[in-house]
Amino acid sequence: MHRASNQHPMSDTVYVLNGPNLNLLGLREPEIYGSNTLDDVASMLEDRALELGVSVDVRQSNHEGHLLDWMHEAFTEGAKAIILNAGALTHTSIALYDAIKAITVPVIEVHISDPTTREEFRHHSYVGLAAAHTIQGHGVKGYVEALEYAAKL
């Protein structure tokens, strides 16, 4: 039986994974999330990544399993880091918590709004329990801050 090694060659790629409803960024509750779209965020990140000497792979899915598969892929591919905005799954997904604990790729949790100032059910983060770092309440600039943090790892 062949066993895969836990040691994967390190790449300079930072995966940026976005969960449910983030495809509606710019349209959904702009008073909370602002008017920038996810494409705007991807462009900002690509520009900053070029300056930092890293690359970004920006993805979005409304399906929890896709986020899990992409986290496993980032691990297998030896990604530098994962920036994860899991959306509402942040507050419900033990599977995301388990995935973060299972991989060695550092995960940086990002929230556009500050969940601790919102509804009570948003105050708990399973993602945050396992993430290496959390940035919240800085609007879409939080993604750039997360990328700068990831580049230093």
Q: Can you put this structure into words, describing what you see?
A:
By secondary structure, the protein is an alpha/beta fold. Helix content is 38%, strand content 17%. The protein has six helices and five strands. The protein has helices at 30-33, 38-52, 64-76, 94-102, 126-130, 141-152, and strands at 13-18, 55-60, 81-85, 107-111, 133-136. It has a five-stranded parallel β-sheet with strand order 2-1-3-4-5, sandwiched between helices. Helix 2 runs parallel beside helix 6 and helix 3 runs parallel beside helix 4. The protein starts with 12 loop residues before the first strand and ends with a helix. The relative contact order is 0.20.
Oligomer: single chain
Radius of gyration: 15 Å
Main sheet: strand order: 2-1-3-4-5
Calculate the terminal CA-CA distance, rounded to whole Å: 34 Å
- Determine the structural class based on helices, strands and strand pairing: alpha/beta
- The helical percent reads 25-40%
Note the total helix count. 6
Main sheet overview: 5 strands, parallel
> How many DSSP-defined strands?
5
Shape: globular
User: How much is the average pLDDT?
Assistant: 89
- List low-confidence stretches: 1-7
Order of helices and strands: EHHEHEHEHEH
How much β-strand is present in the residues? 15-25%
